[in-house]
Write a structure and sequence with these properties.
Length: about 270
């Protein structure tokens, strides 16, 4: 969980802490996305800053009785309705047809999530307060003797909801993406910084894993994402035939061919200052 210094200035400025596991957990796909994330920030802030009392007390301590902007609109409160769709998404729709499609998709998503909640014995959500109670009920946060806490690893929706195999697979893929972000960066750092953006590299999975200080599973995932994005391809043999990553054993040598022009034209690079 991210931690901010607890100062009077921080509190007055509404500084918040968001649990590191919120996005990998998968809950944003099964709860009202924006409001659930803001509540997760509220729980996290109460935890790391030692704010005590009910959720109303925490809001009072953090926002001085003016939580509206925290929930998205001036005047909103814990007793405001839940929103399964961000109103700004509709404002971005360029045609009436697109707007109607967004509304239909949002309604189908809401119906599916409400069905999952009912099957799990949880109430259908009508207010932000009920959303907060549900998040507490599934273990995203806990309040004991007015003291707030959150587990290091949030219980995922698959531990509570009767998800389909496809939905469970989507969560696994989501977590893999979040957890392997450092692996992607380690591979790119090796290709850019150590090898100076080569046109190709003659290597193997185990050699590349050692060079990037990654285990082979994480290296394969990062390499697979590079190939999937169209930034690289694998070739083998004297005839330089294209091959699939899954067909390669760890020790088998191959040519990793990089397309740096494609990489630069299709990637957004975020740097840390």
């Amino acid at each position: 969980m991210s931690v901010d210094q607890d100062t009077d200035q921080d509190r007055s400025a509404g500084q918040l802490s968001l649990h590191n596991d919120w996005f990998p957990s998968g809950w944003s796909s099964y709860l009202p996305r924006h409001q659930a994330m803001t509540l997760c920030m509220l729980f996290g802030t109460a935890t790391v800053r030692g704010l005590r009392g009910s959720i109303d007390d925490v809001l009072e301590q953090q926002f001085g009785g003016e939580p509206g902007r925290f929930f998205g609109r001036v005047g909103d409160s814990l007793d405001s309705p839940v929103a399964w769709m961000d109103p700004e998404a509709l404002e971005c729709a360029e045609t009436e047809e697109e707007r109607n499609r967004l509304l239909v998709d949002a309604e189908e998503h809401r119906a599916r999530c409400e069905q999952l909640l009912r099957t799990a014995g949880l109430p259908v959500l009508t207010t932000i307060r009920e959303l907060a109670d549900t998040m507490l009920a599934v273990g995203i946060a806990t309040r004991h003797d007015d003291e707030w806490s959150m587990p290091d690893r949030l219980p995922g929706p698959e531990t509570v909801l009767a998800l389909t195999d496809d939905e469970r697979a989507e969560i696994v893929d989501l977590r893999r993406i979040w957890e392997c972000g450092p692996a992607d960066q380690a591979l790119m750092d090796h290709l850019v910084d150590d090898l100076n953006r080569p046109a190709e590299v003659f290597t193997s999975v185990d050699r590349l894993a050692r060079a990037t200080d990654l285990d082979e599973d994480d290296l394969r995932h990062a390499l697979g994402r590079l190939i999937q994005e169209g930034d690289a391809r694998l070739e083998r043999g004297r005839g330089r035939e294209r091959t699939a990553l899954d067909d390669l054993k760890g020790h088998e040598r191959f040519h990793l061919v990089l397309d740096w022009q494609h990489f630069e034209e299709n990637r957004i690079i975020v740097g840390r200052v």
